[in-house]
Design goal:
alpha/beta, eight-stranded parallel barrel, globular, 323 residues, TIM Barrel
Length: 323
Amino acid sequence: MTNNPVRFRGLFIPHVTPFDEAGALDLESLERLTVHQTSIEGVAGLVSCARIGEGPLLSVDEKRSVYAVVGKVARAAGRVHIATIAPQSTTEAIALVRDLESLPVDAVMIFPPLLLAWGQVSGDLKLRFFEDVSRETSLPLVLFQVPVKSYWYDVETICRIARIDKVVALKEASFDINLFTETMKQLERQCSNIEVLTGNDRFVAESYRLGASGALIGVSNVATQRWAAMDLAAQAGAFDKAAALQKELEAVKELVFSEPIVEAVARIKVVLQYEGLIKSATIRRPQMGIPEAEKEALLDSYRALKKSDFRREEQTARRQALA
């Protein structure tokens, strides 16, 4: 399979994984949530079992159940489904991607193995990891630049990995605009076909202006229609409009990803439960959840955003009626 630059553009949602109050997978809520997300114009695809999906806290069998449910929903809606894996060795990575070939999965995003952050790791080692995995699978691969400096792929290594035919996209989530800018510049210089999906929710709109093909951001679980509208604006080259939409979303984004950031999943689930998209906001340990006062502040901010949406829709309807 070769690079397909069209399919890996736009807004990708790394959806949460709902649990019931006892902590077991709630597949009914998962299906309801993902049916809703894939029905929204501007959503290009879903990403299963990433950090926001509590992937590191799921068993292999639980992940397979999630992949199966979400993949079925995504394919019915004509959306892309990316599965996330977190292998610790090349052998494990190959076994995982081969297993995914039997499931409704369109691509695989790979969390960097721990060894890639162990001291000074050469670009040759990182490149060989992706070369070895790509030779053993028919699935497209997504490179993940995580927001941990010791894990970063340097720009030269990203460009080398990007030459591998099956590496179709890069989630760039360094949260370093200088590194992001240099990465975009060098990929353009080598005429790379790889799609860059920004994971930098602090400068999503700016990422598009710098050449990003789309966004893969956990915060888009909340107010998804607005994030999708921002993506559509950016894809059309309306960067100022995209920036304005991001500014409107700033308060919710800051609440969702306030410190401790590890509790962002808990905050997202509170909003999704409020919306009736998931039955319970249960999370898994070692996450601790958030206090009641923070829940109320988060929901107050979210309700204010919804009211502004309603007012905007009313104004648009009036203008159309008068036209």
